[in-house]
Specification:
single chain; 410 residues; mainly alpha; Cytochrome C Oxidase, Chain A; 0% strand; globular; NnrS; transmembrane helix; NnrS protein involved in response to NO; transmembrane; membrane
């Protein structure tokens, strides 16, 4: 039976930014990306009073990049996408605000730890409560919607969210128990689970976006290649790589599995390629993000044999699979879900992507060439990151905080 939604039945929220999750979480992620990197500059150079006995500053940085910035983007994306996938309404208005505030309280707690203000244990307790409430509430509403329509194919995504909650919990357990190994495992588990999520969702959306984006400019629709065999191989090789790098550090197994991930996803990329992507920043950015991930896995394979820092491979993977990928997805979703033309993004968008490429060059490539100017490379990379997300904020927060031009809710 057809149900007609009357105007009085339309959902409403106290402000447009609370209409759907992508609005508030993408806005906050952009602002947080700037502020937390600025704070990291001071923490890294020893300009704060961070309690190094409570937490290793490098782990502070890693935690907030993953469980702060990246999880905010994931929440904004999934709490919006699941509405499209399932047809079930996701939290909006004050319910959405409640979920967001849990994330916000946790970030305040970690910021105070980073600045070394007051008792680290007190702020970490606040952060732990906020993070747990945020992760559980986000996972619950997504799970509830998926189960309501019996979309069991989404359970892989839900399981990753559950494991991310465990990974975050390991970080807190490690800090309170005084065992930084738990923090290390929690951070690396978080990174690789997020990359697994990127590979899973990217496998679905990147070919779709390429087909739609190129076909819209062509008389004839195009079809890119996909393979179930490659999907399975990607999952298996990545799982072996993750276990090897976190729990079983064998250089032979690590190199073989990392090369396997790079090869499988490289073949995927060849099947997705169309020369038309270079005319559309929202397509070539996604393509380069996947290409960067493939290059990162090659670095993981080479690192045990050539002796460069493991951190370089880690940052290569994080900057391509998280930095470029989340930036591109936020740009696209922010336009599409506010009723704007995704084929005509702002002129600032290519500049953002070029700045993110600059972060990759100076944080990954230049240290591989020479470590003599490492601090200079690092400062340039940090500056490029800050400028990139400052530009994102000035471009998209005005869009995200205003109602849709077509007056629809969303």
């Amino acid at each position: 039976m057809l149900q007609i939604q009357l105007p009085a039945d339309r959902p409403s929220s106290p402000h447009a930014i609370l209409n759907l999750a992508f609005r508030i979480f993408f806005s906050a992620a952009g602002v947080f990306a700037v502020l937390t990197m600025l704070l990291w500059v001071f923490v890294f150079t020893g300009k704060t009073n961070i309690d190094v006995n409570a937490i290793n500053p490098l782990y502070w940085h890693g935690h907030e990049m993953l469980y702060g910035y990246t999880i905010a983007v994931i929440a904004g994306f999934l709490l919006t996408a699941v509405k499209t996938w399932t047809g079930m309404m996701m939290p909006y208005g004050y319910r959405l605000l409640g979920i967001f505030l849990c994330w916000g309280f946790a970030r305040i707690g970690w910021a105070l730890v980073g600045m070394g203000v007051g008792s680290s244990n007190l702020w970490l307790a606040l952060a732990a409560v906020g993070d747990l409430a945020f992760m559980v509430s986000m996972t619950w509403v997504i799970t509830k919607a998926v189960l309501a329509v019996k979309q069991y194919k989404q359970m892989g995504i839900i399981s990753k969210l559950g494991l991310l909650t465990v990974g975050n919990g390991l970080c807190y357990w490690g800090i309170y128990s005084g065992d930084m190994n738990y923090v290390r495992v929690g951070i690396y588990l978080g990174l690789y689970l997020i990359i697994a999520l990127v590979l899973t969702i990217g496998r679905r959306v990147v070919p779709f976006f390429i087909e739609r984006g190129i076909s819209s400019a062509n008389a004839e629709p195009i079809k890119v290649k996909n393979s179930k065999t490659l999907d399975i191989l990607s999952l298996v090789t990545f799982l072996i790589f993750m276990i090897s790098d976190i729990f079983y550090p064998d250089k032979y197994l690590l190199s073989i599995s990392a090369l396997g991930v790079a090869l499988v996803n490289g073949v995927r990329l060849l099947g997705w390629y169309h020369h038309g992507i270079w005319k559309k920043p929202l397509l070539w950015s996604l393509y380069l993000a996947f290409l960067g991930m493939c290059s990162s896995f090659i670095l993981f394979a080479l690192q045990p044999w050539f002796g460069f820092s493991h951190s370089i491979a880690v940052h290569a993977l994080a900057l391509s699979g998280i930095g470029m990928m989340t930036l591109s997805m936020m740009d696209r979703v922010s336009l599409g879900h506010t009723g704007r033309n995704i084929h005509q993004p702002s002129k600032a968008v290519p500049v953002m992507f070029i700045l993110m490429i600059g972060v990759f060059v100076f944080r990954v490539i230049m240290p591989l060439i020479t470590m003599d100017y490492y601090l200079i490379w690092l400062m340039i990379a940090q500056t490029s990151w800050i400028l990139c997300f400052a530009l994102f904020c000035t471009t998209y927060i005005p869009i995200l905080s205003k109602p849709r031009p077509d007056k629809l809710f969303g």
